[in-house]
Amino acid sequence: MPSADIDQLVAQVTPKPVRLLFFDVEVAPMLAFLWQLDVGYMNPDMVEQPEKFLLSWSAKWSDETKVRSQVLAPGEARAEDDGRIVEGLAKLVRKADYVVGHNVNKFDLKRLNTRVLLNGSQPLGSVQTIDTLLIARQSFDFASNRLGFIANLLGVGEKDSTNLDLWRRCVRGEAKALKEMRAYNITDTILLESVFRAMAPYAKKIPRLVDAAEWRQELCPHCGDPREKTATTKRHKRDGEHRTNVNTFPKYRCSNCGRNYRGWQAIGSMKAGSVGL
């Protein structure tokens, strides 16, 4: 058999984790004319600069250590021209199996999509998301669901200290401020991944993170760890049962990531496999 065919067969039976893209964006604020501070409603005519263009973004693939990022050049910031960095991030998002962000569903992805539209770039297409803010709200009872608070509570790091003046300086096109914004953005992405990995084993619902196929039935569906004992891996512990209206399934505890998952094979059934809870 030719070596190319052998390589193809090996690829077909090798567990393949889905590729996650952790990302975060920083945007310019809107500018408006006000006569008083307690404005209940702001007429669009009062807004001088209504569109929140991107100042910077940072992103990291789940299978890489490198954090990628882009920030506006001073001239781009003054011209409110984010076309270059919008396309840079859009290219990554189009390739991702899932994009992960804190409030990614309501903010980061929608903001990126808006800028893609306004810049006339290629559409993002169908994008699947994992929102760590939703995970925090649905699975836990933190005193605050802000990323920095959770990261600090879990002991995985702290956000960089900053204030509104940084955004003012960035909009004015100050090179030093834009460099600081990029560093701030990168720290947020590093914290995002750390928070996700800490919460994932305890979360109620996260998607399958390993490609599903019948021959992969003996793998943890979240990290790909083999269920059966190998030279370096303990057999996953049987951990109770999961009941539906029709069948009862065995549950297992992954020895690698610690997450609980159920088998595909109903007790007393001949059909086997595994599926995340």
Report on the structure:
It is a single chain. The protein has 277 residues and is of the alpha+beta class. The protein folds into 2 domains: 13-202, Ribonuclease H-like superfamily/Ribonuclease H (Nucleotidyltransferase, domain 5, 2-Layer Sandwich); 214-276, no CATH class. Helix content is 34%, strand content 19%. The chain is built from 8 helices and 11 strands. It has helices at residues 3-12, 74-79, 83-95, 104-118, 132-139, 147-154, 164-171, 175-199; strands spanning 20-27, 31-32, 47-49, 54-61, 68-71, 98-101, 129-131, 237-243, 248-253, 260-263, 274-276. It has a 5-stranded mixed β-sheet with strand order 5-4-1-6-7, with helices on both faces. Strands 8-9-10-11 form a 4-stranded antiparallel β-sheet, with no helix packed on it. Strands 2-3 form a two-stranded antiparallel ribbon. A hairpin with a 6-residue loop joins β9 (248-253) and β10 (260-263). α6 packs across α8 (175-199) and α7 crosses α8. The longest helix has 25 residues, at 175-199. The two termini are 40 Å apart. 28% of the residues are buried.
Layout: helices, strands, pairs:
Blueprint: H1 3-12, E1 20-27, E2 31-32, E3 47-49, E4 54-61, E5 68-71, H2 74-79, H3 83-95, E6 98-101, H4 104-118, E7 129-131, H5 132-139, H6 147-154, H7 164-171, H8 175-199, E8 237-243, E9 248-253, E10 260-263, E11 274-276
Parallel strand pairs: 1-6, 6-7
Antiparallel strand pairs: 1-4, 2-3, 4-5, 8-9, 9-10, 10-11
Helix pairs in contact: 3-4, 6-8, 7-8
